[in-house]
């Protein structure tokens, strides 16, 4: 089996072309942990498995699985990587230079620009809730819940007593775990902590569900955090987002009188290692 290695804004993925491998979803679930554990290659672990299922005129279908084999959520950085992989392997854009695709059953569209940059268009969030202190049992700080086909809690660093200069050194695991498995969220949540610098750039760290650790970047986390910052009037609808990898993401909220209509996520999608064989 040929394994491709990609990275979106520092979020690391392994990719397979299932038109060649013909693996069903049960087998993919079982394989994901081994494929993402790249220690035998002397590479850091991958943070997800991307699967190109089939290609049709103007589009393709794909799947995303977490390293633990769980399935069903959207991955923004992975979405950009599978778009580039599909375009490099037979997929084509339509007459408007847009490619439509599904990832884990949900539909999206994307455009490819120069310098390895890909823009994904997301629909409006399925749910956004601003949660006051105490509204979640046992939680004494404000938070925002956002569902962009991936569940996120967003926390503002200063609300936690974390000064901007200490954001990157704070104990994210300790902050995240009370939310990660909170009974209010049946599927569990990803947890984001952010701060905004003086020029309006958002700096964010994300503890990811299914990885069960902080990742180098999280695309849906960048979207969710920008939404939370915009609702709190800490950000404009267009934001530059800096994850721990330092490879920037760019988010645009398309809104009409405060109602979110759609979202754009732009960032890089690159190959970060030569293909390898898995036996």
Automatic annotation (TrEMBL):
GO terms (BP aspect): lysine biosynthetic process via diaminopimelate
Keyword Ion transport tagged: no
Record: active site: 75
Catalytic activity: (2S,6S)-2,6-diaminopimelate = meso-2,6-diaminopimelate
Alphabetized Gene3D superfamilies for the sequence: Diaminopimelate Epimerase, Chain A, domain 1 (3.10.310.10)
GO cellular component: cytosol
Swiss-Prot/TrEMBL keywords: Amino-acid biosynthesis, Isomerase, Lysine biosynthesis
InterPro entries recorded: DAP_epimerase_AS, DAP_epimerase_DapF
A Gene Ontology molecular function term of the record: diaminopimelate epimerase activity
EC number(s) on file: 5.1.1.7
Family membership noted in the UniProt record: Belongs to the diaminopimelate epimerase family.
Protein name: Diaminopimelate epimerase
